[in-house]
Design brief:
single chain; alpha/beta; TIM Barrel; 2,3-Dihydroxybiphenyl 1,2-Dioxygenase, domain 1; 3 domains; 9-stranded mixed β-sheet; 21 helices; 26 strands; elongated; binds 3,4-dihydroxybenzoic acid; binds magnesium ion
Amino acid sequence: MKTSIATVSISGNFTEKLDAIAAAGFYGIEIFEQDFLAYDGSPRDVGRMIRDKGLEITLFQPFRDFEGLPGALRTKAFDRAERKFDLMQELGTDLVLVCSTVHPESMGGIDRAADDFAELGERAAKRGLRVGYEALAWGRHVNDHRDAWEIVRRADHPNIGLIVDSFHTLSRKIDPETIRRIPGDKIFFVQLADAPLIDMDLLYWSRHFRNMPGEGDLPVADFMRAVTATGYDGPVSLEIFNDQFRGGSPRTISKDGYRSLIYVMDEVRRKEPALEVDLEPMPARIDVQGTAFIEFASRGDDADRLEATLAALGFRLEGRHISKELTLWQQGEVRIVVNRETKGYAASAYNVRGTTVCDMGLKVSNAADTIARAVALGADTFAQPIGPGELDIPAIRGLGGSLMHFIDETSGLSDVWQVEFNQAPTEDTGAGVTRVDHIAQTMTYDEMLSWSLFYTSLFEMEKSPMVDVIDPDGLVRSQALQAGDGDFRITLNGAETHRTLAGGFLAESFGASVQHIALSTDDIFATAAKLSKRGFQPLPITANYYDDLAARFDLEPDMLARMKGSNILYDQDAHGEIFQLYSQPFGNGMFFEILQRRESYAGYGAPNAPFRIAAQKRLMRPKGMPRF
Ligand SMILES: O=C(O)c1ccc(O)c(O)c1
Ligand SMILES: [Mg+2]
């Protein structure tokens, strides 16, 4: 597949953009005229520079307000086109995009436009160039690819073809299946963009909110199925106008773009196996069956305090690593490793961030397949020297440079605990924690799309709608991702200001990482009672909260009193109930949550977040912990 991306899609100056695009593995670029005009170099030099970086120029764009003009304006439009043809020849590209006119003096009429294109086709042909016509969703006379196609069909010139752009078709809810009727060789170019469903003016939506396929809500894979069914085999090119991306890291956004293209084309192939998709075979999205372990990097007193917290939470010391300074803590199915090594990835993570989650192990059906898919999607694999007697467990880089290991039953990798740890379990019956419910990762708001794409393209995970978490000092956006029936859940929390609890954590821990781990119990009250005996210090919740709870829900007075007595928070949705109990914050603002879902409560207790956060901030302030 010829992967391509428009230079408008990413930030930086022209050379920075090219470097990032080349490094991400793209075949070519669309040159957006603005980017080129701002660059101080001749068209010939620009063309050479692009090819020296191993990239092709797949398209020059946009040429605006061409068709349907009267008299002198029409002549002028053709003159302008000739000037741009000169430029294209110097750059070394043969295809230009003409977008449907918004000129106030342009006239409608399919034949008038077709005549203009037939003449333009003649002029282009003399120079060996081609012209593609794209319907802008807000075009004055043409705003639908079907009308643009009719114009191209009537222009009936070999150098005139159609350009389809998923945004323009899907934003107007035009059925992409209508593209199947178009001959593939008359589609000269394909642009892809997704977008979140927001009800707003089409032009504004397009110029500010587009995002990578898979990051938004539009059926981009269905659009691409229809395109592929025509036999089109030219470049598939990302054209993403997005305010965040314009200010983001060019390398990250380019990598996300590459990942999104591979992901969407793999979806096309899976949804419609009869289609010929030019993409190396790769395993399907991976079914994550659960969290195998969570590893903290820590050291000295910090590590002692963490282990004391784990013990208070009902974890028992299960074993020590055969050769490294690792302890394994277990309760129910939950395994937590505390890594005190002074060399290797955990040590680097601790040196930068202090106590932090540096690694996460996921249970998958096939670890080798997981790595193969991750690599196909452009993820970075990770390996470090393996000590005697240790298993080689495959890993990739995850959030904030942390690791993600994959453990399966078939490869013997699930025996790692018996093989690598001297088992010395204590007789401890724990506090009733059964498994990991979810892992909450904190990041800047700008990083959220990258991480949701990372998880949803690699794993069979679905996104829930974004929810607002109200911190007394600002807003935190939260996006939940879920695999299977909740076998593996992640929440991505995007902070916009350092004054929020999440933002403060982000600043103190030098970047995105796990801020809290939520553990399940089948009986929150029994667990609370056991925790209390173990000296666990819950996060104290105000009496006002419980008064409000009594007003909002029909709760038995006895149950309300028990919740209040144990600092348990409560919420209901259409599917069930949730009970939540929080630890006090530790490290740079990390914490544990213990929760019980009843029936099939689907959320994460977002309505309780403001009270939980206020309580955490009350505790953190006097101790000189992060200044929230
Ligand atoms: O927003 C625009 O003007 C614009 C220009 C060129 C395109 O290909 C496009 O999809 C939109
Ligand atoms: Mg476009």
